[in-house]
Specification:
Elements (H helix, E strand, L loop, with lengths): L2 H4 L9 H20 L2 H8 L3 E3 L12 E3 L1 H5 L6 H16 L6 E3 L2 H6 L7 H15 L12 E5 L5 H16 L11 E6 L1 H5 L6 H14 L3 E4 L37 E8 H8 L3 H27 L8 H4 L11 H6 L2 E7 L1 H9 L6 H6 L1 H22 L2 E6 L5 H9 L8 H4 L17 H12 L8 E4 L8 H13 L4 E5 L2 E4 L5 E2 L13 E6 L4 E3 L5 H9 L6
Parallel strand pairs: 2-3, 3-4, 4-5, 5-6, 7-8, 8-9, 10-11
Antiparallel strand pairs: 1-7, 6-11, 12-13, 12-14, 14-15
Helix pairs in contact: 2-3, 5-7, 7-8, 8-10, 10-21, 11-12, 11-15, 12-17, 18-22
């Protein structure tokens, strides 16, 4: 197994279970590549496309949106007992699927279990839940990918829950160090929390203050062009950015539904093959879109034909949409099949032969870049009509892929190219991390792409320092991205802490408080937090090039 294969996931602890999981996963991946159609396997091995969660190809779907009661059951429970049952349910579900779990209206649903708990009691209970969620409950070597969406319920019980969630996350772990999971996603809605006179504006202000210290919550724009047609209570984030909304086969929204599978296309490699010709690039794109579609259909059919799929927890317990039919295929038809992409602007750099390292250069080629993404979205829309399945376009997170693609290409089609030589490609449609732009420009340039990436997307704004003493700046950043129609928004900054005393701030390798050298550097990797030293190699290279948009 190569280093590139080993270091593809930051959320993996180097323990005994991790060694066995890595060993088994690689052999399962090898077996799958020998079993699927050779054309698809070749594209994966040559880094033209990447099959996500390859080891689960013939085992299970990716992610799911759930209700609290799905994992807790209908029995009467105290709030404390509900949270304990919830953790057990999360542990069971995270080990029964390949991706994330999204609670789409967590504060509302958790509030149903409240009694007369004091604010301090609620904070303590949530802190215990967070401590549990930061143990290696997934595969014995990973934390569960779990996301709590909240913020638009204005009822007093839901507000009590939401404030306690934020206060507990702000406190951090027992030594004061930041929590990594769960991912908290605050839903933005003008009349519920954004407007100063809105009933939850105080909750929004509290969320901003926690973001300024902990990088979480991130923010989901319920009012954006692509989100506003849907009931805001039924949509949100699953995993690091997955969005499940429309449905050609039944009820819309994300409850009981999720992403079945996804593949990511290497736009940069297609640009190398095109040798500067936009016409040749689109020819490459046509071929690879068709192959991505064909691969997803093959995977869908493989999963739909499983004899033991009824043992999946979501079907067995009946909370997957369509579970009552007894048909695995009908359950999967409610999910999404996502075609993702990486390296849009890197591909444009290759196609134009220009560095595209300034705002002016990006704007000069903006319509060409937007046209590529529009073309891919039109393809996935046609795929829906052709197949009756929920194809979508995903702005890929590409945690391990960003380096895998670049490392392969610099030895093959991209040999000698500065784009591949840097060791990583920029995620999806993101402004390249080494282009100096301010946060307003970044949000403006990325905003139009969000409406096209209906399978999920995010815009990050990088700050040079922890903005805990400038919450107003965090607010301006989030609201600028909101105004620019970004669907999902995150704030990044250096978040370092001492593992011995819990001191947090921008640190070197020595803690200024206690002198310890056990300093950890927490960063956002691809939608969730992780220790920088555990990043995949491509992400480590990317970190060296990142420029701040807020200084």
């Amino acid at each position: 197994m190569t280093d590139m294969q080993k270091k593809d996931l930051a959320n993996r602890t180097s323990n005994a279970s991790g060694v066995i999981v890595d060993w088994g996963q690689q052999r399962k991946k090898d077996a799958i590549l020998h079993a699927i159609p050779a054309r698809f396997a070749k594209k994966h091995e040559e880094c033209t496309i990447h099959i996500h969660d390859l080891e689960f190809y013939d085992v299970v779907y990716n992610c799911l949106g759930v209700h609290v009661r799905d994992l807790v059951g209908t029995a009467s429970r105290t709030f404390a007992h509900m949270l304990r049952a919830l953790f057990r349910g999360i542990t069971a579900l995270t080990n029964d699927q390949s991706g994330g779990i999204g609670f789409l209206q967590f504060d509302s649903e958790a509030a149903a279990y409240l009694a007369d708990e004091s604010p301090d009691e609620l904070v303590a209970l949530f802190r215990e839940l967070y401590l549990d969620l930061n143990t290696q409950a997934r595969k014995g070597c990973e934390k569960a990918y779990v996301t709590f969406n909240f913020g638009i319920d204005t009822s007093e019980p839901a507000r009590r829950v939401a404030f306690a969630m934020l206060d507990a996350f702000d406190l951090g772990q027992e030594d004061g160090s930041p929590f990594i999971f769960p991912n908290l996603v605050f839903k933005l809605q003008l009349e519920k929390n954004l407007r100063p006179s809105a009933p939850n504006h105080d909750l929004y202000e509290r969320a901003l203050a926690v973001t300024a210290r902990r990088m979480i919550p991130t923010y989901f724009n319920c009012d954006s062009e692509s989100n506003s047609p849907f009931d805001p209570e039924t949509i949100g984030i699953m995993g690091c950015r997955t969005r499940v909304a429309s449905n050609v086969n039944g009820r819309t929204g994300g409850f009981g539904r999720g992403n079945v599978a996804c593949v990511t296309m290497n736009l940069v490699q297609m640009a190398y093959a095109a040798n500067g010709s936009m016409e040749a690039f689109y020819h490459q794109l046509d071929e690879n879109l068709e192959d991505a579609k064909g691969l997803l259909l093959h995977r869908f059919a493989t999963l739909a034909g499983l004899d033991d799929a009824a043992s999946w927890m979501c079907i067995r317990k009946g909370f997957a949409l369509g579970a009552e039919t007894g048909s695995t295929e009908k359950v999967l038809k409610n999910g999404t099949l996502s075609i993702g992409f990486i390296g849009l602007w890197d591909a444009m750099r290759v196609l134009t032969g220009e560095p595209l390292d300034t705002e002016e250069a990006l704007r000069a080629h903006f319509e060409e870049a937007l046209g590529i993404v529009k073309y891919m979205r039109a393809f996935t829309d046609r795929a829906i009509e052709d197949t009756g399945l929920n194809f979508s376009l995903l702005a890929s997170a590409a945690e391990g892929v960003t380096g895998r693609f670049a490392m392969y290409d610099r030895e093959h089609l991209g040999r000698g190219s500065a784009i591949a030589e840097k060791g990583f490609y920029s995620n999806s449609f993101h402004v390249p991390v080494d282009v100096p732009v301010d946060y307003m420009t970044k949000a403006e340039l990325e905003g139009p792409f969000h409406a096209l990436a209906n399978g999920g997307s995010i815009t990050y704004i990088e700050a040079k320092e922890m903005p805990n003493k400038n919450v107003a700046a965090v607010q301006e950043v989030i609201e600028e991205a909101y105004r620019c129609q970004c669907n999902y928004i995150g704030m990044n900054f250096p978040l370092d802490y001492c593992a011995d005393c819990g001191y947090t701030g921008r640190l070197t390798d020595t803690c200024p408080h206690c002198g310890s050298h056990h300093v950890r550097h927490l960063r956002r990797v691809s939608g969730y937090l992780a220790e920088a030293q555990s990043f995949a190699e491509g992400k480590k290279e990317e970190m060296k090039h990142r420029l701040a948009h807020l200084r």
